[in-house]
Each structure stands twice: as C-alpha cells, then as structure tokens.
Amino acid sequence: MSEPLRYELIATDPRTLARRGRVHTRHGTFETPAFMPVGTQGTVKGLLPDHLRACGAETILGNTYHLMLRPGAQAVAALGDLHRFMAWPGPILTDSGGFQVFSLADVNKINDDGVTFKSHVDGAIHHLTPAKSIQVQNDLGADIIMCFDQCPPGQAPLADQLQALDRTLRWAELCIEAHARRDEQALFGIVQGGTHLDLREQCAQKLISLDFPGYAIGGLAVGEGYEAMKTVLAHTTPLLPAQKPRYLMGVGFPRDIVEAVRCGVDMFDCVMPTRNGRNAYAFTMDGAIRLRNSQFARDPGPIEQGCDCYACRTFTRGAIRHYFFASEMLGPILVSLHNTRFYQRLMTDIRTSIEAGKFADFVENDPRSRMGPRE
Which of 76, 103, 191, 312 could pair covalently with 302 via S-S, beta carbons 3.0-4.6 A apart? Predict the structure, then answer.
C-alpha cells in the first residue's frame, strides 16, 4: 500500500444510511461494520490471540494511556512494536490516552497545552500533550492512531463543552504536526461537542477541512442517555466524508451498535464483552443471563443454544457457574470468549443484512437491536 489506510465501500442499505465496507491497512484488511475487542494493557483480558481470531475479530484496540505508563512505549517499540508485543499480526488501533486521563487519573491541571496528571499505577506525575500522545502512538506502531482530545462528561455545562471543543480542534492541528509516521499510520480526527448539535457540526466541519484519513465520534456513552446519543449520531454521522471510515468510540450495547450502523458508522470498540464476561454476565439472543444465579447450578445446556463458540460447544452452564464460585480463571475466560463471539456474530449478521439490502428489516426484527442495559 502507498497509503496507510484505504476505505472501500461495498454496499449501502436502501432504507437507512447503513453501509458495508472494507478497511485496508498495512497489516491487513478488516470488514465493516466492525467491532474491535479492547486490549487495554497489551492484551484482550483473558483471551489468546488465537481465541480472538476464532471468534471472528479482525482488528483490535490498544490503550495509549495504559501502555505509556506500563511498560512504556519505547519498551514496546524495542520489542518489535505493538503487533509483536500482543502477538497480533492484524490491524490495530490505539486511542490517544485522553479519555483515560480524564476518567482514571488524578488530574492536577488541564490547560491549552495539555494535561498534568498523577498516574493511577505509581503516583508519578506525567504531562500529556498532543505531541506526546502522537509520539507514544508512533512508538507503539498501530495502524490507526487517534488525535488527543478533551472529552467532557455528557452533562457538562455549555461553557465546558465550548472550551473542550476549542482545545480538541487546536490539539488536532498539533497532532498532525507531530505525526512522524504518516506513510504507515492513519491519524483519525475526533468529533466532540457533547449533545449540542451545532457544536458537533462546527467540530466536524473544521476536522474535515484538515483532511484526516478517517473520523471518530467521541464523547458519547458518557452519561448523556440513549435518546440523546441517537440524536447526536443521526445528525453528526452523515456530516462525515462518505469515502472515509467513521468510528464511534467506546460504544456499547448491541442496540447502540445497531443504531449507529443505521446512521452510517463503520467501526466500534467497547470493553463490555470481556468486562461483563469476567463478571459472569453473558449475552444471548434471548437476553443477558447471569451465570452466578443458582438456577444454573445443574444446567446441562451451553451458555447460548446454537452459538458456535468454543465455550458453548464444550462446557455446560453448570460447570461455568462452578468455576466462578471456585475462583477458577476458566470461568471468566469462557464467558469473555462467548461474549466476544456474540458481538462478532452480531457484526457478521449486520454486514450480511446490508449486503442483502435488508438492514432495515434487521433493525425491526432482530432482538439484538433492542438489547440495552436493562437486558
């Protein structure tokens, strides 16, 4: 490839804005709409790379904040880059570290230059700037990297949203200037603006003028509520260039993904499959089940009837429940594996329905399109 990323549009749905595509990177191709399992600290918790491949994952995500703190981006680079470090030869996306700084760290100071914060690992003081975020991501060597942005809470006052938007736009230009591996890594801009549609539009227009290889929608699933998220997606996604990939960051439940696809989003990530899996919470077509419940103690069935994952083909609900109560690591591994496969099956079915021109029917009839936090 002469360019770090290329988006190929394959099909569109006649009754929605859903689209079926393919993203080409220097480490291979992934089909869209795509869901990326999250590898927070250089590993998708509890799952081997072979597990991820078997589940249908084609691209994964790494967290800049965590890898910067431990073991350090230069240590990862010395070991051959993040692909070698994670033993994942396919495409990888790294976030900018901004969301984790604002949500996890003890932030000491935020100004137009960047963020000074205390590490949650050892209490050391760090200063993260747009240039530093890009340098770390350059060292990690992912195929897709993200601009450093400020993500305020969903219900933040308008004044805070305006300040965050202003910083996000100025930091985007600084990220472009700092990007040292433009022929190898595609840098995405991030649209912020909270639930204010005029701010979202303003941000999108400015970022489009900077001609990024792809665009993300950030600042959702941070407390704004489902209906507000739908409104923002419906307004913002069509503003983004049709010939480039669109990425909704950190979302979410199956219904959120289906709704975002309906609006034209191509890429997703979320910790939900593995985080819930570690807590015995399993997604199924009939709704979520909690495998710690006593009703499953002697249940000889799989987590989900008809699922083709290793956990469902091999283990009973009763056995998996026992592993959780016995504090055996196999329990969280098996449910994480199943949930990861559940999400990848969802994406496969979405892609198939778009190609067939029947995505609107999928939205109306498939139970996963209504599967949210109350399931």
Answer: 312
